Amino acid sequence: QVQLVESGGGLVQPGGSLRLSCAASGFTFRYSWMNWVRQAPGKGLEWVSGIDRGGGSTSYADSVKGRFTISRDNAKKTLYLQMNNLKPEDTAVYYCAMGPLGAFSPRGQGTQVTVSS
Prior knowledge:
Distance between the termini: 40 Å
Largest sheet: 6 strands, mixed
Number of strands: 10
Number of helices: 0
């Protein structure tokens, strides 16, 4: 079955950077669109970014555009999210999700990102 395992979260100061990874298994990764979504404390799921099968087409929520970069390595079956210039409002649990642009599930167990001084 679909397995998605996120890693790379942590505590970072405002203005800092983190790189999230998502290891995929149980499906044909190179055939699948992939997304990053997040859930801030007390809020619902928010779509963050998506990428097509080959990595040539990407899309971002306005809140992260210009600061976050999504990418993938199909040989390694891994999805990435490079996050720069992090802000306190980026604090959330970040999930990778398989599916068309905007998909929220299936998704992994998530990795916590906390932006605080």
